């Protein structure tokens, strides 16, 4: 038998919005612009969990395994498909990096022009690089993410360009699929869903996804949503916009989230909470995940794990339960900063004994 005839169905992936078509705003005319996103691994991390609490079974859903390295691809496949259906020729977004890379890639795939507006000096090189490689117009402004989003909103009000930030409802629709995959993998909803909160689109989308699955009879109960913001970029926790947000987790360095109200609704309807974690807690969680479980996520993503660690220390988990942390993006986005928190590597001459000595073998 020719090798090409052997079980090719093993390799078969369906575009995300096709796979969950019944839950998506698809019409007969919606084109499917896809890079075969989704199907991200939900990894059970027992070794890490044992250092946190004897009550929790912990899973991390590694969204860094999406085509452009973040969860944004789930929403972008839907948003760009709808943009093409509507006859749009151009897309624009403000971004701390991941949305930009995703918008640039899916625009390239669809043959759209794309512009990405970034806060100057605050976006990791990997993401600027992706946006440029995909042929987007990259504009860095002297301002923060909130300033960039205001400019993009202004432009899309004045000119016929499609906004692909999470204010675009199709982004939220697509991002619901993360919740569907979790429930499909577990066979039920988790008890707790931990997630970083920046512009607050993703917590909104996951909550909508869980609710849609419950309404469809696919799950019996809903999880409690545990959102985490960085301590000095925590407008929802503090109850007011933060004019100059700060955090090493640049993806969630946002002072006035567009999804503020819907994030609060997800928190309150689910009986959950939105809390703060410090940069130190975020960094420790990022390193712990990478070194104890082999999962390398970016700092913003580690806020979810940092939050679960914090809550466990406070004695929050009193009964056995399942917790899913969303690791929203890949650590390779910003290797430079990651290397700064590791011990330096060793340089030696090309000599076996020197290497063996360094390894304490002789
Ligand atoms: N984690 C990562 C890795 C992100 O890139 C973002 C948002 C979030 C979490 C927060 O998600 O905004 O839906 O609450 N990044 C946006 C961007 C702002 O431009 O890439 P959210």
Molecular structure report:
There is one protein chain. The longest helix is centred in the middle third of the chain and has 15 residues, at 201-215. Strand 7 (192-196), helix 9 (201-215) and strand 8 (224-230) form a beta-alpha-beta unit. Helix 7 (169-175) crosses helix 9 (201-215), helix 8 (177-186) crosses helix 9 and helix 12 (279-293) packs across helix 13 (299-313). The strands form two sheets. This protein has a six-stranded mixed beta sheet, sandwiched between helices. It has a four-stranded parallel beta sheet with strand order 5-4-3-6, sandwiched between helices. The model has no long low-confidence stretch (mean pLDDT 96). The chain has helices spanning 16-19, 46-52, 72-85, 98-110, 125-133, 145-158, 169-175, 177-186, 201-215, 235-238, 260-270, 279-293, 299-313, 335-340, 352-358, and strands spanning 42-44, 56-62, 90-94, 113-119, 137-141, 162-163, 192-196, 224-230, 273-277, 321-327. With 362 residues, the chain is an alpha/beta fold. The protein is 42% helix and 15% strand. It is built from 15 helices and ten strands. The structure holds ligand F0G. Residues 70, 72, 95-99, 166, 196-202, 251-252, 298, 300-301, 328-329 line the site of ligand F0G.
């Amino acid at each position: 038998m020719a090798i090409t005839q052997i079980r090719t169905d093993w390799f078969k992936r369906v575009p995300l919005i096709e796979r969950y078509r019944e839950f998506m705003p698809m019409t007969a005319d919606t084109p499917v612009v896809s890079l075969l996103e989704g199907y991200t691994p939900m990894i059970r991390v027992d070794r890490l969990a044992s250092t946190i609490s004897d009550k929790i079974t912990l899973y991390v859903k590694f969204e860094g395994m999406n085509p452009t390295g973040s969860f944004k691809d789930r929403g972008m496949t839907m948003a760009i498909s709808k943009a093409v259906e509507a006859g749009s020729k151009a897309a624009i977004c403000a971004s701390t990096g991941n949305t930009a890379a995703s918008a640039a890639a899916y625009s390239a795939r669809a043959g759209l022009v794309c512009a990405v507006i970034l806060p100057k000096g605050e976006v990791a090189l990997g993401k600027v690089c992706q946006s440029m490689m995909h042929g987007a117009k990259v504009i860095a402004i002297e301002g923060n993410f909130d300033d960039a989003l205001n400019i993009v909103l202004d432009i899309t009000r004045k000119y016929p360009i499609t906004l692909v930030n999470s204010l675009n409802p199709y982004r939220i629709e697509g991002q619901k699929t993360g919740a569907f995959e979790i429930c499909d993998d577990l066979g039920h909803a988790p008890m707790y869903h931990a997630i970083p909160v920046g512009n607050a689109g993703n917590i909104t989308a996951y909550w909508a996804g869980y609710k849609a699955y419950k309404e469809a009879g696919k799950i019996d109960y809903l999880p409690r949503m545990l959102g985490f913001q960085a301590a000095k970029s925590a407008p929802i926790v503090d109850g007011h916009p933060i004019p100059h947000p700060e955090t090493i987790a640049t993806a969630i360095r946002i002072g006035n989230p567009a999804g503020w109200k819907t994030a609060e609704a997800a928190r309150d309807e689910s009986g959950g909470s939105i809390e703060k974690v410090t940069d130190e807690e975020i960094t420790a969680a990022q390193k712990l995940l990478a070194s104890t479980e082999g999962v390398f996520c970016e700092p913003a993503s580690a806020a979810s794990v940092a939050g679960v660690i914090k809550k466990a220390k406070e004695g929050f988990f009193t009964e056995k339960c399942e917790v899913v942390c969303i690791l929203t993006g890949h650590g390779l986005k910003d290797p430079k900063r990651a290397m700064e928190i590791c011990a330096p590597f060793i340089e030696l001459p090309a000599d076996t004994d020197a290497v063996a000595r360094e390894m304490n073998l002789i």
